[in-house]
Amino acid sequence: MPAERGGVEYGGAERRQVEYRVEETTPVFVISVAAQLAGMHPQTLRQYDRLGLVSPGRAAGRGRRYSARDVALLREVQRLSQEEGVNLAGIKRILELGIEVEDLREQVERMRLEIDRLRALLEERAEADRVFAAGPGGDIVAVRPGRAGLSRSGALVVWRPQPRP
After folding, report:
1. How would DSSP label each residue in 56-111?
2. Residue ranges of domains in the chain
3. pLDDT per position as a tens digit, 81-138
4. What is the CATH T-level fold of the domain 1-84, as seen in this structure?
5. Nearest CA to 95 among 75, 109, 82, 76?
6. What is the pTM of this model?
7. Which pairing describes strands 29-30 and 140-143: parallel, antiparallel, or unpaired?
8. Exposed (0-12), middle (13-18) or buried (19+): which is 44, by Cβ within 10 Å?
């Protein structure tokens, strides 16, 4: 969503500066600009696309459009290739494993949230599942669920749980 900055007058007409925020995943760079930003030849980017290393978005006319994330990925491919000596098949596997690790991290986070939710539910139920019995002196005492029955005095303790909603 554009955010207005303030008005500036030019020749009697007011012009507004508008600041646009673009997500790093938004494909905005044509292949020549992306190649220049990554320090590569455009043909290299086409080859990487064919190999599935970096797959840019497509414009309406089927032209490639690269995002800032794509450009960063191109730089990483170049670094792995030139500085680390990894071949393109190895780079592709490294990138696939990186995506898999990220997916697993997201899954772990979802599972942590579910565990927290279930723990809170268990705590809530534990409070509701308390059992009370009559103590030897006639006082009321809390008894752990499943422990109700005959008290130490030999008196019978009756407990009927309420049906859960």
Report:
1. -EE-TTS-EEE-HHHHHHHHHHHHHHHTS---HHHHHHHHHHHHHHHHHHHHHHHH
2. 1-84, 87-128, 131-165
3. 999 999 999 999 999 999 999 999 999 999 999 999 999 988 887 766 667 777 777 7
4. Multidrug-efflux Transporter Regulator; Chain: A; Domain 2 (1.10.1660)
5. 76
6. 0.59
7. unpaired
8. middle
